[in-house]
Fold:
Amino acid sequence: MDSKPTPFDIDAPLGDARAIIRRNPDDLSEVEMIEASWGSNPRFTGGIEYRFIRAEGKTFPSARCLIPCSEFHMRAAGGKRYRVTLDSGNFFYLAGVWEPAMADWPVCYRVITVYANSDISDYQERHGAIIHRRQVMQWLDATVPETELLAIQPAHTFFVEEMKGARAGKPGAQRRLAL
Structure:
């Protein structure tokens, strides 16, 4: 499994596998990186593909995970695609929740979303909740209230650029992942 943060593409297919970070359910003193599939198994959700979960009005006391990212991709009205990075250039994590394997569906995860900040709101209404590197253990261990971690990011947090031509599907160089 690759230990580098990679672009997160909201257009990736259901079941797309990638690395997530979580507390080991068999030994909660251990943090582990595992491969998980994106989205809940539609067989167990009435045929609906759940890939995201809204933060508002919900709590996440267990099964928390982090999805390492170098950037995320989004599609705005009109079909234009955009690459979004932190303005600082650092990699980050998307807050998520994981679900155990069921039947023939592997361990999976969903991304927790928040309302878009002012950098993103011209393109779409929501985006994945950002967990900064300094907040990793706060999210995994629930040591800080969720409302503080799953907050709308301040203005000038993100750099947004349109993805054009051949670059639209090819991520740039990645840095190694560090917890």
About this structure: Residues 166-179 have pLDDT under 50 and may be disordered.
